[in-house]
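User: Here's a structure from my thesis project, written as structure tokens. My advisor, Dr. K., wants to see whether a designed sequence matches the one we expressed. Can you design one independently, without my sequence as a hint?
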């Protein structure tokens, strides 16, 4: 490392990510000087895997609950304890740079960036067949050349919070197009479905959003025309890197902590509160031994939501969605009035 090269620090939250952690750490160790892992009560061997990589700094996230702002703050605070000029990268354990990154102009721009600069990245979602990908047309701010001043405050919410200190200054904003962040979550479809259920559930718990909006937000809609062949230059092969990325990824989908988290809350709070949330698919019911609590009407609405997702932006479907929201509010109001009338 030259005297002028900034330290490259990757900050990653982990909770039971053993399935992909070897791949993530092998790839990230190629470029990062430090990999800070904030482990949140993992029980699948994630901690042991992390500690087997010399660049890892393992810290504890002691909170039992879902709290994105807190987990990012403890990562950023630990990174800022490391002295020297540094660039902070916020990546999840199922995200790795495509293998062509080191040979790109954008990577050179990152290494030669200035304090205060923010770089935005695009996902390449890798299909479960490991031969195709699709890339949403949206960028995420996942790299900040630390100025040591900017607080982790802008664009911080209780869900899907920004991962880095995020200054609002267009002069310091850059977009990465020469390489992608390969998103590996879709390699395990059942796990990704469980994660989507979890987000619907947590978003309802925290923000009390209408169940129609929750379904539209978290129901994955893959446009077939956007699927492309996975470029060979993106892949980490044994010939070039002495390891094969896909061989380091487990296909074990049997134990899903997302579902257990939901079950624990349901046991505590009761099931009736959550019947409208579209989480009651067969894989969830079978794995948790829960009985489907939905009425026939709610099942019909859920069927409608799942089978109209590709059309959800059309005016006709948006009108129906709004009508359903109005009806839902009226039903809740009628329910509250009936309860109050019984009390008096």
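Assistant: Designed independently from the structure alone:
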């Amino acid at each position: 490392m030259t005297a002028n090269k900034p330290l490259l620090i990757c900050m990653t939250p982990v909770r039971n990510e053993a399935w992909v952690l070897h791949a993530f750490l092998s790839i990230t160790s190629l470029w990062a000087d430090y990999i800070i892992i904030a482990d949140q009560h993992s029980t699948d061997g994630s901690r042991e895997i992390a500690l087997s990589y010399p660049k890892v700094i393992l810290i504890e996230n002691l909170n039992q609950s879902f709290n994105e702002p807190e987990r990012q703050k403890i990562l950023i605070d630990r990174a800022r304890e490391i002295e020297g000029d540094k660039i902070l990268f916020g990546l999840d354990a199922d995200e790795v740079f495509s293998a062509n990154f080191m040979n790109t102009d954008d990577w050179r721009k990152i290494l030669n960036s200035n304090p205060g600069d923010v770089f935005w990245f695009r996902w390449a979602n890798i299909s479960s067949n490991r031969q195709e990908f699709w890339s949403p047309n949206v960028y995420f701010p996942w790299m900040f050349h630390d100025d040591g001043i900017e607080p982790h405050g802008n664009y911080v919410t209780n869900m899907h919070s920004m991962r880095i200190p995020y200054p609002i200054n267009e002069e310091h904003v850059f977009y990465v197009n020469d390489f992608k962040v390969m998103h590996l979550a879709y390699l395990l479809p059942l796990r990704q479905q469980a994660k989507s259920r979890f987000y619907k559930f947590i978003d309802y718990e925290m923000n009390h959003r209408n169940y129609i909006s929750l379904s539209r937000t978290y129901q994955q809609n893959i446009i077939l025309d956007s699927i492309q062949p996975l470029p060979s230059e993106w892949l980490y092969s044994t010939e070039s890197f002495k390891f094969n990325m896909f061989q380091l990824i487990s296909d074990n989908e049997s134990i899903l902590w997302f579902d257990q988290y939901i079950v624990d809350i349901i046991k505590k709070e009761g099931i009736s509160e959550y019947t409208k949330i579209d989480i009651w698919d067969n894989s969830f019911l079978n794995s948790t031994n829960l009985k489907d609590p939905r009425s026939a009407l709610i099942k019909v609405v859920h069927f409608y939501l799942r089978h109209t997702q590709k059309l959800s932006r059309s005016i006709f479907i948006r009108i129906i969605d709004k009508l359903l929201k109005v009806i839902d509010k009226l039903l809740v109001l009628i329910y509250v009035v009936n309860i109050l009338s019984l009390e008096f």
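When you compare it with your expressed construct, this may help: Residues 39 and 83 are 23 Å apart (CA to CA).
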